[in-house]
Write a structure and sequence with these properties.
It is globular and about 55 Å long. The chain is mostly beta strands. The protein is built from one helix and 16 strands. A hairpin with a 2-residue loop joins β5 and β6.
């Protein structure tokens, strides 16, 4: 037959996407064909960051994510799979896919994006963690040594990152090459960088012509 060039198609999940009042720490996503997860530890990013590493596995046409940390109240959770989901036979990637749910009565949909560049040569930094901290009255260059990031993402091959599920507010962004997975700068071998700019989420009405 013809060569399969069609990526997996998402059919549904439990809990449903953007579900509210979620208390279950087990997420099951279903697709239209047998699938696999490519480099889950590198590509899949969960916000808020999980101190106890979640279990991510495939079961036929399903992806099962088991969270081990206690769910935080009134919090939006995002599971960013990037392009890790592929069909089992030909390895066609689904493309960037993010699943979200909330433990509260609302779900946060703001995003903060940008690019991380190496200060020495201005080349993009691939695969580095980028996280947010709520902005207080003054910028702190020591916060990332004591407190885990509140929401995280990882840069792609172009150094680009998108942090999703952000609550409206003011934030500072930090980039961290996290060697031990605790979302804190606590080793000399870890690289870190930050921007003193205060990032403020915002939105405005957008009207587009239906063609």
């Amino acid at each position: 037959g013809p060569y399969d060039e069609t990526p997996p198609v998402f059919l549904g999940s439990k809990p449903e996407p953007f579900a509210l009042g979620v208390t279950e720490r087990r997420v099951v996503l279903e697709f239209d064909e047998f699938i696999k997860i490519e480099k889950a530890a590198e590509k899949v990013v969960i916000s808020p960051p999980q101190i106890q590493h979640p279990e991510i596995k495939t079961n036929g046409k399903k992806v099962v994510v088991q969270l081990h940390d206690t769910l935080k109240a009134a919090t939006t959770y995002s599971i960013d799979f990037s392009d890790a989901i592929e069909d089992n036979n030909e390895g066609n990637p689904m493309g960037n896919y993010t699943y979200s749910f909330s433990t509260g009565e609302t779900i946060d949909t703001m995003e903060i994006s940008g690019t991380v560049l190496n200060a020495e040569d201005l080349e993009p930094v691939k695969g580095i963690m980028v996280g947010l901290y709520p902005a207080d009255s003054s910028f702190s260059d020591t916060l990332f040594t004591t407190t885990p990031m509140t929401r995280v993402s990882r840069t792609n091959g172009s150094g680009r990152f998108v942090i999703k599920g952000v609550k409206p507010g003011k934030y500072h962004a930090y980039a961290l090459k996290d060697a031990d997975g605790n979302y804190i700068f606590n080793q000399k071998s870890e690289a870190v960088g930050w921007d003193t700019t205060t990032l403020v989420t915002s939105s405005k009405p957008d009207i587009r012509m239906d063609t």
